Amino acid sequence: MDEPEGFPPVVVHAAQPGGRRVTIRGEDAGLATGQEDVLEFLRRAGLEDARLDDPELVEWRGGGTKVWPAQI
User: Per the confidence metrics, is the pTM higher than 0.70?
Assistant: First the structure.
């Protein structure tokens, strides 16, 4: 499912059991269990130098970079 125009190309969805779903350009990149996984998904998508705190690139839904399932 594509994100509407104007949304950041990377979305880290709200925490669920097991991690946080990550979509890149509307495509499922996988289930991240921490920031390192998100960075690896970005690397695989050709975004090696991406910053997780860049709001024009990454939208964090349901909490920021430090919110993971064990913390909910």
Answer: yes
Dihedral angle, C-alpha 57, 62, 5, 47, nearest 10 °: 20
Least confident of 7-11, 42-46, 57-61: 7-11
Q: Exposed/middle/buried for 36, CB within 10 Å: 0-12, 13-18, 19+?
A: exposed
Give the separation between CA 36 and CA 41, rounded to whole angstroms: 9
Determine the Cα–Cα distance for residues 65 and 3; give it in Å rounded to an integer: 20
What are the beta bridge partners of residue 24?
10, 27
Cα end-to-end distance, the chain, whole Å: 26
Element (H, E) at 15: strand 10-16
